[in-house]
Amino acid sequence: MKTLVFSAALLFSTALCFSQSIVGRWQLVKQSSCVEDEIGDEKDSDTQALVEDMKGMSGASPQVIEFRDNHTGQESTKIISKKKSYNSKSFLYRYDDSGLYFLDKKSRTIIEGFTVEKLDGDSLIISNTQRVCETKVFTRIK
């Protein structure tokens, strides 16, 4: 009996070691949008200049998002959503191994969902569940 309990505890602790936590501060380092995919093969100079102008509009300050243990978080700038119903830089979230969901503060319903493509110690890659061509790449900062 003691061996069974010890084995179960060991298995549980091993599983905890391999699961990554989203809690922490993350800086946006790259993002792709559906516009870039639609433009695709058109490589004329006007189109390329438009894409570069759009990328430059994000500003020079780093875009940082922080996830806390109590399922709240805060953005330094609008990173996740531009919807009017979600106009604050603070948010509620829910995370499981495959999805990241941002919740309405009052009703706690899902406002926006992301598929977690990759989560390890230093990087987080998410893609919008409704617009798969929209991907965001973050690196963990301290």
Could you describe the 3D structure shown?
The chain has a domain at 21-35 and 61-141: Lipocalin. Residues 4-18 have low confidence and may be disordered. A hairpin with a 6-residue loop joins strand 7 (123-128) and strand 8. The protein is globular and about 50 Å long. The relative contact order is 0.17. The protein has helices at residues 2-18, 34-39, 45-56, and strands spanning 24-32, 64-67, 72-75, 90-95, 99-103, 110-119, 123-128, 135-141. The chain is α+β, with helices and mostly antiparallel strands.
From the alpha-carbon coordinates, what is the Rg to the nearest angstrom? 19 Å
In one word, what is the shape? globular
The rounded distance between the terminal residues' Cα atoms is: 44 Å
Q: Which range best describes the helical content: under 10%, 10-25%, 25-40%, 40-55%, 55-70% or over 70%?
A: 10-25%
Structural class: alpha+beta
Instruction: Using the coordinates shown, work out and report the CATH topology of the domain at 21-35 and 61-141.
Output: Lipocalin
How much beta, percentage-wise? 35-45%
Tell me, what is the CATH class of the domain at 21-35 and 61-141? Mainly Beta
Please trace the helix and strand order, writing H or E for each element.
HEHHEEEEEEE
Counted by DSSP, the helix tally is 3
Would you count the extended β strands for me?
A: 8
- Main beta sheet: 8 strands, antiparallel, barrel
CATH architecture descriptor text of the domain at 21-35 and 61-141: Beta Barrel
Mean pLDDT: 78
Q: Could you give the order of strands across the largest sheet?
A: 1-2-3-4-5-6-7-8
